[in-house]
Known about the structure:
Elements: E1 19-22, E2 28-31, E3 35-39, E4 57-60, H1 63-78, E5 83-84, E6 92-96, E7 101-105, H2 110-123
Antiparallel strand pairs: 1-2, 1-6, 2-3, 3-4, 5-7, 6-7
Helix pairs in contact: 1-2
Amino acid sequence: MNLDDLLPKTPKPPKAVLYSYIDGSGNAYYITKNRIQYDPMTAKYSSSGFYDGGKAAEVALNTEQFKTIENSLQQAQKQDSDHMLKREKGSGLVRLHHENETFILAYNSKSKQALEAIFKKIMTP
């Protein structure tokens, strides 16, 4: 089963997306140079029928925050030992839109944990 088929079709990613990330629960993060948009998984589309990723959000990024995300994604890209060939439940899907590259981060990989910690810090008011 392709887990991407479970993702809701809306809302749409912002224009000028440089990076996107879909976490192990199907929550999507879209990153531009100055914004991060969070599109959560809803119970309707979750594999359990119950999981809800919360409310959608959009946060302005300053240059330092954007560079932190970009550096973390570049490190994750280089860390082949954290990559998987096939997407499984719990893994993270990274898309580098400007490089037309996609890779999958393993469930408990350090790269995935680091990236998600950065997103949590930025998205938490």
